[in-house]
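[job 0412] stage=fold_complex status=start
inputs:
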Amino acid sequence: MKYLVLLIGEGDLPPWDELSSQEQAAGMEKFGAFAAACGARDGVSILGGEALAPASAATVMRTRGGALSLTDGPYAESVEQLGGFYLIEAPDLDTLVELLRLLPPFDIQICPVVDIDG
Amino acid sequence: MTADRYAVALQRVVRDDWSRLASSLVGQFRRIDLVEDALGDAVEAAARTWPRDGIPERPSAWVLTAARRVILDRLRAEAMHRRRRPLLVSDALMYAERTTSRADPGDLVDDDRLRLVLMCTHPALDPDAAAALALRLVLGVSTRDVARLFLVSEPTMAARITRAKRKIVSAAIPFTIPPLHALPGRVETAAGVAYLAFTAGYAPASGSDLVRSEIAGEAIRLVRVMLDLRPGEPVLVALLALMLLQHSRRDARVGPDGELVLLPDQDRSRWQRDEIDEGLALLASLEKACPGGAGEVPAVSRQTAAYAVQAGIAAEHARAAEAGDTRWDRIVRLYDALVDLGAGPSAELGRVVAIAEAQSPRAALELLAAIPLPGSHRVPAVRAQLLQRCGDAEGARAAYLEAIALCHNETELTFLRNRVAELADPD
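[job 0412] stage=fold_complex status=done
writing structure:
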């Protein structure tokens, strides 16, 4: 079972660039602990994951009536703070949620990936 | 007579064995989406063939075997379908069989029924849908009856249940008992889901039948099933006490013409004594196990405390032989505790009603204005009653009319209109 994990918001945390370098280091440690815990857990592996540039760097590409348009900024307000993502293999939702609790307490959207190979 | 015999045998299987059958099938196939339909088909087949062939020696094993056959047929058909149209993106493909490891910690009771309850009430599901799914899948309540409980049409409810089942399959919500550190929270979520089903039966927002008590009673059965699996769990004990004490008054809440009868006017001999006794005993056992009790800092979770305090309020009414014997001073204190627990404006409204009895209608009127319940008919309805008791018939009439404009429940509307008529003609 694959899941796309979107780190969609800071939740109760202050924005990352407002944190002191010490606080940022503590946050990074949590990402490290999360990766280690995923590696140690049976049936779980991180298939990919990156931090993303701020929403101001995003571009939306649309095709309407055959015409391409590009617009500055994110697709929807809800993803304005999208800070990063993981693609993770995990046996089930509960296992994944348990592991994700090791990350800083971001708001997170978990999307199951549809297996279309049948 | 004999036809009845078959129906009774089948009803017994549905009533007593459904959760065991469903959990065993989910455990075997991990396909919650197929289990409900398969059991439905199996029960239908039983209704058709038992009168002809006789009641099988082990009726529930018969139903289980029949349901298993239906699931195997469906799985075979799906496999065929996949081979023929390998790249079709459809729901069927999302249901590709998944193997879920069952890695429960060994210190917990190995019980598929608890797994089923926790799966159906998973916090990742919409709470309304979870309540419906639990009634359908754990208790075998028909989709039609679940729809009636939640005041939606049968197709709407069927779609809601299907969505919840799909979410379980597509998000891989596991059929497991969570580790001990996560279990209390999950049991509390399950309790909340059961209470949602119960209150759906008691506080209809619209529709003509006031108390769909028989179906609300199924929510009590759901809590009994859970309590059977987690004996003594405080949140379940408190919730069962609350439900029983409220449910015990169901027959007295409705008059001969289906009209609403308020607590002070209810015929208390029509309250179910055995349920009251059980509720009071549960409450006493809870106070023994979790000292601190209502009104003090609870030694239990906020949710448990809120159930216990509400049960305590219902218990005060149950203990009063007549309406005049009610200890309203104690009820005010319990409502104070409930408001402190963050129970919201409806608790504040209950507190105001209690203050009208313990102190005076005028004292209550002053507090009523501050309750934030916009759009609800309950605030003007209470205000009307208080004004009436203060002798302000004109003010009461205006408040009743305001309540009538906001109310959508037929039974409550009749009640409010009757009060207006009484104001015009006091005899």
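[job 0412] summary: Residues 2-112 of chain A form a domain with the Alpha-Beta Plaits fold (CATH 3.30.70.1060).
[job 0412] exit 0
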